[in-house]
């Protein structure tokens, strides 16, 4: 038995125990994930294609690891303008092991894996020897160590001109950008004439990374190029 699922804008042919690498899915290694967008199911010689027949089919998987793709270099040069720019990009990916293909409306048992030590440290505080979770709002508004959340230029793709546009529109911190929905991105893209930069440069993901305490992508890429090692 195998199925064709859709996730992250791509299609994958999967069967039990297959490993696939998909666009990033939030979670920790060991977490159960469910793919409800099933395009086709083949069981022996019988194949089922399209809705509504596939609405009661779910593909279950387990997160194996969070990874990053190979670096892609984007180089732009304007002739006779003494202008050139070189940037690196590495896609955030998730490796998933397919555990089962469930039919008949069955749903997988959603299990949670163990969070990484860094995530546990960031997500809880020790009070009198006991761990207590921080409020979600406090997490979202936390500042990366040594960095100012109002410094929009630390988001790769936000230059001085675009930063002025954002501030004029009332967008003054990483928290504002991290809270954007797809509708917000489309709105600001049209109003501020961003030409798809927010989506292409993953501003929302970058803002969330900065709030989580990760270094700015531009600085991380520069350090990686200088050292010759992958971060």
UniProtKB/TrEMBL annotation:
Family, similarity comment: Belongs to the bacterial ribosomal protein bL21 family.
Protein name in the entry: Large ribosomal subunit protein bL21
Role according to the record: This protein binds to 23S rRNA in the presence of protein L20.
Superkingdom of the source species: Bacteria
GO BP annotation list: translation
Keyword tags: Ribonucleoprotein, Ribosomal protein, RNA-binding, rRNA-binding
SUPFAM superfamilies linked to this entry: L21p-like (SSF141091)
MF terms (GO), sorted A to Z: rRNA binding; structural constituent of ribosome
Natural source organism: Bosea lupini
GO CC annotation: cytoplasm; ribonucleoprotein complex; ribosome
Gene from which the chain derives: rplU
Positions of the UniProt region annotated as Disordered: 209-231
């Amino acid at each position: 038995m195998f199925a064709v699922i859709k996730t992250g804008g791509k299609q994958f042919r999967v069967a039990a125990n297959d490993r696939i690498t998909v666009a990033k899915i939030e979670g920790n290694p060991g977490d159960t994930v469910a793919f409800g967008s099933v395009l086709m199911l083949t069981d022996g010689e019988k194949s089922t294609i399209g809705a509504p027949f596939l609405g009661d089919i779910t593909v279950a998987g387990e997160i194996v690891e969070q990874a990053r793709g190979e670096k892609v270099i984007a180089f732009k040069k304007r002739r006779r303008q003494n202008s050139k720019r070189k940037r690196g990009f590495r896609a955030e990916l998730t490796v998933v092991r397919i555990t089962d293909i469930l039919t008949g409306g069955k749903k997988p048992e959603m299990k949670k894996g163990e969070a990484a030590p860094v995530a546990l440290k960031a997500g809880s505080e020790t009070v009198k020897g006991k761990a207590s979770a921080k409020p979600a709002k406090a997490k979202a508004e936390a500042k990366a160590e040594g960095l100012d959340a109002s410094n929009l230029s630390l988001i790769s793709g936000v230059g001085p001109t675009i930063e002025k546009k954002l501030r004029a529109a009332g967008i003054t911190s990483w928290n504002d950008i991290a809270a954007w929905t797809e509708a917000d991105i489309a709105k600001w893209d049209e109003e501020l004439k961003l030409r798809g930069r927010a989506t292409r440069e993953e501003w929302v993901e970058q803002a969330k990374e900065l709030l989580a305490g990760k270094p700015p992508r531009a600085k991380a890429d520069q350090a990686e190029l200088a050292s010759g090692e992958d971060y």
